[in-house]
């Protein structure tokens, strides 16, 4: 049950969201993945955008609840990194502009560890006024 | 008050902690920075390791409380990303092995925005048994 | 100040919400109680439904703030069990379908411990799509 | 992906922890399960007791991290119900005396939903003085 | 159920902890009260110091759990104001030096609203190094 | 880096919000300050009212993000004291009526500690029905 050095799913997802050229590394592993953008003051819209992208790009099977459940918790964990305290945006008068990358693969050497999913977020958070913002990052990882 | 494209302090700090070769980009900007490692079940030791590195490497002036205060909150925010819910380690029976990068610089185009500090964390979190762990990431940013 | 074995208000409220046949046990103790259902993505509507049922069924006296205050905190505590981290529903894109039971009685052997109120919740939580959900439970107890 | 009426894993786990006679219902389904007790002011000891029981009774395979990971998050979610706000015991001067039940089975009608794990907690929480306590309940559910 | 203008228990408790000369106003109302000091990195010691003072000065009856329960939640709420996010001190490498005031009285005009308890905290929070700290305040109010 | 006895910015801001006659003490120090009122079930409106007052009264320069950022975090910290657990109002069916005071000055003896900002809140929190409420207090302090 050790993480394989070349298969660090969290690091790969974070590099991918920071710089799209890293997509090729994820692709070489034969892993499922997708990326997208969302900007909103409504935290539910951020969750919805990531879920929709994952389903549309078949990174998860939206017909199977256990896949949706795994992804949902990975998203919520990534949002903790972005929001740092309360998973709230508009209700505390702030907005985000985020890129996201979703990666699904086998990061462990042992085949019985199976598949895991990583959600990486990068962008800005701040007041609903252009420029009044700083960067934010989040990563959520779950077994799927 | 716009973030300058080449001076994205959060992205630079995260790339730096993920891959030490990015140190040169931070150095070219003439920004203060340092990096280090800490592994512990005690969350206070993680905070202490980062604070000590920042002071020892003169990224902050430990004699000035406002600098310590700015760094402390950046560390706490980064720990939110790593712990995703409760800023606790051993008290909820988990441990971390983290690399950290601290970067201090001027990410905004306007000089009046002054200096900001970013704390980036990358490593693993999990049960206190080798291998029972997955990756975790956190980023905290504050004005200093 | 010991809990009386036959008067475990939390256990009774939980059994009552899981299986309405347990209502008789609560009734035999001569305790005030009511039950109801609420399904919503809006957490405030869940709170309102429970408060309204408690007042309408005279489990609490809505004219006395200390009773409303006691109930409110019991509801919030029960919601912690259901939401497990952030007391949020629609804002994090999830919905609940809950049954609730409210019980008011004297669970302690000593008469000076007076009345306490228990709010038990049982149902499902999940995505706003039928079937994409799992069960959730919460219990809040307060002196009244 | 609907929950099967006779296989409500959360309800079964909660009834099991409230009244051991419900063990037979879990057994009839052919599901893995175990029960145990733990009393402590140290939250990490509560986590450890539940994890140890699950491994010792082979409800999970302790050699496979994804199983430990699934269980860990189910425990943490159940502790949210018990602690209602901060997953802390001794550090906020309170202690628990808990029974726990762990159940692993297939609650959904569709076979592709696979196995899920439920952790149910029931007992008392209060000051570290006998009698200064009330009941508490928690339930955590995760895919495994 | 209106708060009586001259009996604002929260305001009185806060003024009392900020300036001991306000003790006379509390005394004139015939209300129970006490004050004290506590400095610690251990959050449980802060809770214990306040509970002990309340019992020793007979602001609450330590033999009755409902009074301990009411006080405990008022303390925890006051600590939220002091800690602002995680009710943790030493585990996140910070310490407090606090004065506290506990006031018990009838703040509402209607006699059926009965007694309430307020816990006011004032002092400093910061790194475990003298001077690396700023002020912090908290107030908790509960029915008793 | 010691707090100067006559320049306790948190205490001054709290006294100021509790009793407007304390405004003169803040004025004598030559510090920037303002006060205002806000009542709402929407937490974002509370944040907006405080930010708007600070900008309109030139306590902060709304054109400089670092000042907005410092104020925002001070407001959020003050709201933790008022909300005591979840920074939510209407979504958990409660409302506030608050006075606020914002003070900006140099509370430390050493000039290199520079300016700090304090946000003090005092008022009531409760159900959206007149009278069903108790007092609440919050204080947030940040370097600016």
How would you describe this structure to a colleague?
The structure is a homohexamer of 144-residue chains. Chain A is an alpha+beta fold and 144 residues long. The first copy, chain A, has a single domain (5-143), classed as Hut operon regulatory protein HutP (Hut operon positive regulatory protein HutP, 3-Layer(aba) Sandwich). Chain A has helices spanning 9-18, 23-28, 43-56, 65-83; strands at 32-40, 95-105, 116-126, 133-143. Chain A has a 4-stranded antiparallel β-sheet with strand order 1-2-3-4, with helices on both faces. Chains in contact: A-B, A-C, A-D, A-F, B-D, B-E, B-F, C-D, C-E, C-F, D-E, E-F. The A-B interface holds A 1-3, 8-11, 14-15, 18, 76-77, 80-85, 107, 116, 118, 120, 122, 124, 130-141 and B 1-3, 8-11, 14-15, 18, 76-77, 80-85, 107, 116, 118, 120, 122, 124, 130-141. Chains A, B, C, D, E, F: Homohexamer. Chains A, B, C, D, E, F: InterPro entries: Regulatory_HutP, Regulatory_HutP_bacillales, Regulatory_HutP_sf.
Write the layout of secondary structure elements.
Six copies of one chain form a homohexamer.
Chain A: H1 9-18, H2 23-28, E1 32-40, H3 43-56, H4 65-83, E2 95-105, E3 116-126, E4 133-143
**Which sequence of strands runs across the widest sheet of chain A?**
1-2-3-4
Structural class of chain A: alpha+beta
The general outline of chain A is globular
Mean pLDDT of chain A: 96
- Give the oligomer, counting copies of the same chain as homo and different chains as hetero: homohexamer
- The residue fraction in helices of chain A comes out at 25-40%
Features:
homohexamer, 144 residues, Hut operon positive regulatory protein HutP, 4-stranded antiparallel beta sheet, 4 strands, 34% helix
């Amino acid at each position: 049950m050790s993480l394989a050095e070349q298969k660090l799913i969290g690091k790969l997802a974070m590099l991918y969201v920071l710089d799209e050229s890293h997509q090729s590394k994820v692709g070489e592993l034969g892993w499922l993945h997708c990326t997208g953008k969302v900007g909103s003051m409504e935290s539910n819209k951020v969750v919805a955008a990531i879920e929709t992208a994952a389903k549309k790009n078949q990174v998860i099977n939206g017909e199977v609840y256990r896949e949706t459940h795994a992804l949902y918790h990975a998203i919520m964990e990534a949002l903790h990194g972005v929001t740092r305290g309360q998973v709230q945006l508009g209700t505390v008068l702030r907005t985000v502009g985020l890129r996201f990358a979703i990666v699904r693969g086998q990061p462990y050497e042992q085949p019985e560890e199976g598949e895991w999913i990583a959600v990486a977020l990068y962008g800005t958070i701040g007041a609903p006024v252009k420029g009044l913002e700083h960067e934010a990052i989040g990563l959520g990882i779950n077994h799927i």
